[in-house]
Amino acid sequence: MSSRQKEDRTGARHYRLAHRTTYTYPGVVTSSYGRAVMLPREGGGQQVHTSALHISPTAAQTGEHRDFHGNRSSYFKVDTEHSELEVLAESVLTVTRKQAQVDRMPMISWSQAAEVTHTLGAPGRGGDSGHGVNGNAVIAVSEAMLASQMIDLTEEVRAFAAPSFGPGTPLAHVVADLCSRINSELEYKSGSTTIHTRLPELLEKRQGVCQDFAHLLIACVRSMGLAARYVSGYIETNPPPGRPKLRGVDASHAWASVWVPGGGWLHVDPTNDQFIDNRYVVLGWGRDYRDVSPLRGIVFTEGKGSSLKVGVDLMELSAQEVEDVRSSHVTSGPPRAGARGR
Amino acid sequence: MTDLLAGYRAAGPGHDEMLQSTGAAREAWAQMADLVDLHDGAALAARSHDVVELLANNGVRQGAGNEERPWLLDPLPVLFDEAQWAHVEAGLRQRALLLDHILTDVYGDAELLTSGLLPPALVLGHPGFVRAVNDIRNPGVHQLFMVGTDLARNADGSWQVLADRAQTPSGMGFAMQDRRIVAEVLSGLYRHARIRRIGPFFQAMRRAVRDAAPAGAGTTPRAALLTPGPYSPAAFDQAYLATMLGYPLVEGEDLVVEDGRLWMRALGKLEPVDVLLRHVDAEYCDPLDLRGDSRLGVPGLVEVARNGGVTIVNPLGSGVIDNPGLLTYLPRLARSILGEELIIPSTVTYWCGERSMCSHVIANLDRLVIRSTAPGAPVLRGWELTIAERADLAVRIATEPYLWVGQERVEASTTPAVNGGLLEARPTQLRTFAVSGADGYEVMSGGVARIAAAGSDVVEPGPNDAAKDVWVLSSLPHAYSDPWATDDAGPGPVSLPTSISPGSAEDLFWFGRYTERAEGTTRLVRAVGDRLSDYSVTTTSGFPLRPGSDEPVVLAVLRQVLIDVVGDGEPARLVLDARQPGTVAHALARMARSASSVRDQLSSDTWAALSALERALSAERRRQDRDPDAVADVGPVAARLIEGLLAIAGILAESMERDVGWCLMDAGRRLERSQQLVDVLVASLHTVHGRADDSLVIESVLIAHESAITYRRRYQSQPRVESMLALLLLDEHNPRSLRFQLRELAASLDQVPAPARGTRTRDELLSDVVDLLDELDLATIATPDADGHRTTLVTTLESMSWRLRELGDEIARVHFTHPVPVPWLDASGTFATPSSRGALEENGELT
């Protein structure tokens, strides 16, 4: 059964997402505090049917709120003594997102776009900016222009960006070109970087993982006075032809999203050199990796060190399977109505 | 005598607080001039000297680590008359309301950012803006709990605001300390003048804490003050404030989040904290949701604040108010939010995030003050930069313009300050404080003024710039205000728990140990030093000399005792060298450090005694520097040190509540004294010498342990080892004996709440030592072997010694340690590989 068959006429794809993280400690952990951004957000061509975090040992306290960027942020605290902690995020969702077509994007040039971006929310403007952007969207765009912890706007970044920013080039073309250049000029190499790797070092080595590629694209865009943000999520992987899909072979993914005046946020994946489509699941977004790291925490223990195992499964479901899930689960929606997202 | 006032001239063309442009003194100052006698240089110098001494006696310090130094305070206050102050106060109240509105908005609906009143980048790009606390709301009328505002007066005599401080407004403790000291030094004037008290401000703060507490906290919410610890530059200020308010001073590791609340770790249990007065920068307060590498915070603190389990003041994120770029927009915000003009304008500030202002700043770099909006960034005086530096700066500004401001220079008004016997006109700025109240904000009637070097501009006071008290004169006689009358609607007496944190407990334990170490070492060095002076080589006739040496045996033995127990060196060095562990000076330094960590637990008299000890050491060092060749007799300095240490012993015995903290302090003392006694006995008794030598050694040991008089009264005989051991080891009535120490140690440890895992090892170690003591047969062990050694005695004592050492470690293990928070491994780095792309291409789906 090919995956093609599971896509219905509307272009919807259905998934069961399971992201399991297991920590093993040499000593006894007396308590553990965790923060996760692992439950996918709604919208943008994504419908979340069920979504929940399972902690083992059972958490004594849990909580969820919408973070500054509107992502679903989960908190948990484990009081039971343990030497192994498992965090499992499970969701069932439908993705109807269509891939953006460069030719159908607004033809606004990058320099005009930069001018619009700059004047958004400028003092004295008030209310509607005239670009269909107001309220929290102004904040989202304004924030996405600024340097952030992982995004240094250095000379090296500007120099790398420059060739894609020809005079009068439409912004959507600039983004597509940057995406291709990062994909071809940098080598994807697992383990070549860490979460602490900064952009100048990346540009020096020309090797990295999806997180680095996303950071670089964002930095290039921001260095020209435009807005871009970091997106955390997953991409569906297909097994080689004729082989069954194995469990736990999928993985976290990350890409960038660029604000195009009149066209909204354009999600672009430099790791795979494409705009995202219905094979991608969005967890959440922020200024850079640090705003949406999927899982982090603090333990109280007298032992030293720990080891970590991660497995992600993004399995396709048929329309009927999704219907079964929906009818047997109470939909776990957003934590509170009216919570805002940026 | 020349009249100093006649020689006082305001430094520049600017405003002087004391003199009018006609040269006559303003009324308030004229009154002070007469009462304080500003005309008399010698009297002024004497008052300055008094201030320095009082500051030292109160242990008032600023800075930390190598930067630590005494707090400097000018004896002459800055004076405000009633009308002037009314204007300033109204301006500060208005400003606090406005800043509260901004703080509430940017972490709430953010209408200021979306309506074009505040540029979003100004707030979103500022490091003080903490996204993790978005949407958290404290109970109470205001989100801004308190604010510090820096003011200066322009050349034209009008006030302006230099900066607002809401991250962790510091200086309130210094304000109160300064007031106490200046009021004492100028007591005649202070009583004569009608000066507004600043005490009511601290009562207002306690009311504000109550009003901000979570709903579930009841009528007597429990508060604590979170400090980065004794190494914080503002450690004194924080500890003093905690003491003033009566709240425990805690560090991050003393707190824990459990069951949706914040708790203070007390020995053996947890106690709830409802309101946390935060003196740690927000980013460092929670390693889970804020900076993961912080060791100053509490994991889960943000979450528990979000759920209303604790109120943090100032709220996390308040540092966004400290952004100097806000000054540009305050006039407009005041008009649109309050419908008012700012009563006190701010320093003219250009935020470079707006293009027109950015161009203006870059074009005027040579005459503007330039600063980054980031907290703690250095201030650049454009006119002091070279052309190349200005060009570099222009590039940096152009790269991230929203992170920079340019400000017009401020030529602050001058006030008279005492320099030696002279009066100087020094530029002055003022830190004021406001705290949330039911009806707007309450402003402290005073504050902390800082003076800069003559002729300089007070953009930022430097480390060597003195402070001044600020007096607001009142036309009304002040009503006596009851310092304990905290609340209008206060409940009846409530007994709050007085337990202490493991951190404070450990500091008190070490304070006890170092105090005893200082005393024991001083006594031992003095006893040996006296012998060395008495039996100098020329007067040794009759005493056997060491073979091959012209030194009497007794001196060699005593020298070796010092080496074994204290360390290598001449007696003077063993007293004075603070770098060598084991010396008196070293123990005193550790003692002072432990004390400053538990300032809120100690009597205020402690500081005068500590200061006297420090002075005794300094005086002796100076004496030796003057005359390095003189025979170093440690007698006089030792006498003064023992005097000071006895004063501390008296304070500990007579002025401290017998709570858990005291018991640990006492346990530290008893343990240290036991250890030292056992070690001295081993070092002095292991080998038998001649009868006369042994007598002298025994006598010195008795003197060092303050038991010589008792011994003589009781035994009236030539000193004998057996009777000495009876007195120093077994006698339960001798407060210097080992038995006495062990009994008291057990009694003190008994009062300390046991942790969950129990105290078995600790108690076994102690009872082992008691058993060893009980089993001693003095007649046997005092008798030497055939080869002249007291092997059994030494073996027994050494076996006691290592158990005592273990006991010290075990006490620390059992009572002071708890698990350390460790960040999880980062789960990233397990990202999808682009192999997915290959697969997609095989399916022919990639366009």
TrEMBL record, chain A:
Disordered: annotated span: 323-342
Domain spans labelled Transglutaminase-like: 202-272
InterPro entries, sorted: Bac_transglu_N, Papain-like_cys_pep_sf, Transglutaminase-like
Domain of life: Bacteria
Stored SUPFAM superfamilies: Cysteine proteinases (SSF54001)
Full protein name: Small protein containing transglutaminase-like domain
Taxonomic path: Bacteria, Bacillati, Actinomycetota, Actinomycetes, Micrococcales
Automatic annotation (TrEMBL), chain B:
Domain (DUF403) ranges: 505-816
Circularly permuted ATP-grasp type domain residues: 77-452
Signal peptide range: none
Pfam families in the record: Alpha-E, CP_ATPgrasp_2
InterPro entries in alphabetical order: ATP-dep_Glu-Cys_Ligase-2, CP_ATPgrasp_2, DUF403
Cited PANTHER family: BLR2978 PROTEIN, BLR5612 PROTEIN
Name of the protein in question: Protein containing domains DUF404, DUF407, DUF403
Source organism: Serinibacter arcticus
